[in-house]
What does this fold into?
Amino acid sequence: MRFLHTSDWHVGRTFHSADLLAEQAFVLGHLADLVTAESVDAVLVSGDVYDRAVPSAEAVQVANRAMARIRAAGAQLVLTSGNHDSAPRLGAFGDFAAAGGLHLRTSADRIADPVLIEDGHGPVAIYGIPYLEPEPARHALGVPDAKGHNGVLAEAMRRVRADLATRAPGTRSVVLAHAFVTGGRATESERTIAVGGVEQVGGDVFDGVDYVALGHLHGPQTLAEHLRYAGSPLAYSFSEALQRKSVWLVDFDAGGLAEVRRHELPVPRRLAKLTGSIGWLLGAEEHAELADCYLSVTLTDSVRPVDAMRRLRERFPHAVHLEWQPENGKATAALRYAEAVRGRPDSEIARSFLDDCRGAPPNAREEKLLRSALENAGRGEE
It folds into this structure.
């Protein structure tokens, strides 16, 4: 039996306002090609299929086409809902979808209802644990005294193990879960799931099953041989610029987990960072290869350049993020409003504000405009 473990598709997400649907469609299409090339039996998607609870029609179309291609390639799909998904919406028509090989696990009452897939060694029971918001989940699971994510996941896994104990001896098992497991490394692109200051759960909560397909953290990582995050198929923050996005190919034999292999995913558009003065960035030949990258730029000019993003995009059309950190450190100086304005005339405050924002005082033309604006404001108050 061979599984493909993926998660955190976040279909519909933008990257600093740049539309990613084409890139998402490309990478998810690659998963279907991988199903064919590797003879995958089932694709496991551990939550955050969409980026929003109410995804756009275009996002739904991209996800639907990807799932249809995966199914046509010969694999069944098991999906759970994450903290970004609307569990009721994602799970709608789940019973009908299962007839076509798409198995949705989005509610607490189906945690102990596994998807059963057979091979020559017998059944594999695949349990889907959706993201469990602690407060409603502890009541839905009938454990009102459960504390935080650890408490409700412990109850979910108790139910999984109880059901597994009723299965035929030798039944192998997989669990999908969307959670922040202790030891995992976060990036800047995950939405916090902290409740009452506690968001992490111990890995021992998942003891007793052959493989745990985790979702939520966007970097691929191995917490134990049987306990892994696949990560997101695309980078969703510049903190992920150096990550190699991937999925896990998980092989089962008669005894359970036999082998896990990492498969790196194609990168539709790389991420890169640049730092320097705007003149150097626009003129240096060594940056030519970055013209097709999503780019984060930090400008070091002592005076904030005018219309910097437009100018940068003339050479780097996919520049999406811009910061100004002058080498003299002026922009990062701490400012206290009360001290900055106390006893100073409005004209001086306005000039200082402009100086603080861009690193240079107003020129003669700007001085004239400021005086005119302040005079008009004064007349309006009379």
